[in-house]
Amino acid sequence: MERSTIVRVHEGLHARPATRFVKLAKGFESDVELVKDGKAVSAKSSVKLMLLAVKENQEVTVRANGADAIEAVEALIGYLENPRAGLDDESEAGEGGSEAAAPAREAASPASQAGGTPTLQGVAASEGVAIGPAFAHFPAEIEGPGRRLQADEIDGEVERFRAAVATVQARMDRTLAEDNLSAGDRGIVAALRDIAADDSLTGEVEKLISEGDDAVSAVIAAAATIAADFSAVDDHYLNARADDVHAVGRQVCLVLLGQDEVSLETIPQGAILIADDIGAWDLARAPLKRIGGVVCGHGGATSHIAIIARSHGIPAVLGLGEKVNALRAAKEVAIDGNAGHVIVDPDEAARADFTRRVEAAAQERAGLTVFKSVTPTRADGTVIEVAANIGSLEEIEAAQEAGAMGVGLFRTELLFMRHMHLPSEDMQAETYSALAKAFAPHSVIVRTLDIGGDKPIAGIEFPDEENPFLGWRGIRMCLDRPDIFKKQLRALLRAAVHGNIKVMLPMVSEIAEVTRTRALVAECAAELKAEGVPHAAFDLGVMIETPAAVLIAPALAKEVAFFSIGTNDLTQYIMAADRLNPTVAKLNDVTNPAVMSAIELTAKAGVAAGIMVGMCGEAAGRPDLIPAFIKMGLTELSMSPASIQRAKKTIAAMAAGR
After folding, report:
1. Which candidate in 1, 58, 159, 585 could, as Cys together with 69 as Cys, close a disulfide (CB 3.0–4.6 Å)?
2. pTM metric for this prediction
3. How far is CA 451 from CA 82, 160, 260, 340, 485, in A?
4. Among this protein's residues, is 304 annotated catalytic?
5. Which CATH code for domain 105-137+269-361?
């Protein structure tokens, strides 16, 4: 069984999407291969898959042979056609480098800072400036003993190697189980875990051991071979995976040698971490809140070190090469993550310059931080709820730290997409309850399953569609699959006992979709009552994202408790322009008069009916548009946590007449 398709995965099959693809493939008994340009590799090997260098918009073929070949091909094709595949949330879209939170770039030509202090040049990997004590992290390089094994030692050495791999995986599993690990860091560690046990690496190591190499020497040699393969690929992101292979190999070698890696636990507050190289796993489990900046000899803008640094707001300059050795004995270091500059032991003039810049940045952040606990209002005293868009429980802390007044959009599809099977009612109820408890007494708006041909999941078979954005998705699919929808509704009714759960239906285009859902909710409530399961009613609302919903908004407003305007899809539908198609990107502008008119029509209908009107699209966090939305009558704005404090500041300035 085989089938070809065009890959729509954002940035292609880089580490995290490749890891998820392999996990999905391993769920099938059939042998599965992915073919590109005539080259076929096992779909159950992360390393081989990444080395195939499958990029977005390329054509590939999925080939399967076995009892469940048809199911395997359909599921894997669905994954490849999903732009969001392998990404836990919107903030992860930048792993490939082009949409990172702070686009990294090569530094400009060598320069000197204030006072003439010489400046080292590297890659600007994470924006921001910092100055602090140097914390040198230069663990000794591991060298294999180079001992030749006797024939009767080979089997024992293979077992010793396998045990070391299992130990490394177990350590990574413990890291993955930690509650303080962000969703992005979790994905990176999971990808490293896969590399540790990938057949490409373990197979090569065991081959070398069988030929007489000791395990440590074999790991070093095998890692070097695979890393060289990654370095040879014509793709900057995949080149950066060479560092990951070396880092994983180092961890296995340390176990084999009975040694521990030098710990980062003792790094002082605000220190600049200096290293020739540092593994992504080591950095992910380090006390990141104490690290003032990162400087490395290795790594680039697309390395996992850069991704972790950006996601935690840590300035970073990477790729210094041999120049990093000039920092080994440094007492103080100043870095500019915007330009890729590093200053060793800055003189008074340079220190004063950096201190001023750091203070200015801190003042800007502090100026926003004061809005964390602010409850913004209109001039008439009406509270404007500034909430967070999130898709997993791991994102709760970031939303709370930003001062989110509840959740305006919880994307339940991510709960479905991260599992090999459809999540049970109990699993869903636990997730929704945890969410409600975390934000009580603020409201939590949970969007029912918004899955379609563009976002497939294991366990639901989707038809081939020329345009999945206009196809069997959202509420349309849910109403056709009550076996799936009722489990979610029952879970939401159970979670509603906490008192702050609201439920929102996606892709509504006719009133019948609301009335049919109400009937299912009543049916589920009756079942739970008969079973003696605690439950409660919830407010039911709709996401306004189709032109049809805008045009029937006055009638819809009489049927629901609230509206939430999804500007991302509403804009593409109003403008008839695919928001994933770069050739028509200029048409996907929420400020287009047609889109703004649709938003205003929706707001008028909601205000006239006396229901809450909110917005959960990206436009909700734009300071330049917030005043217009509030004047239209919106009283709730939901956005990424990073935008919350700035939005609150904008609203406060409006109320003050500024």
Report:
1. 1
2. 0.55
3. 10, 45, 45, 42, 11
4. yes
5. 3.50.30.10
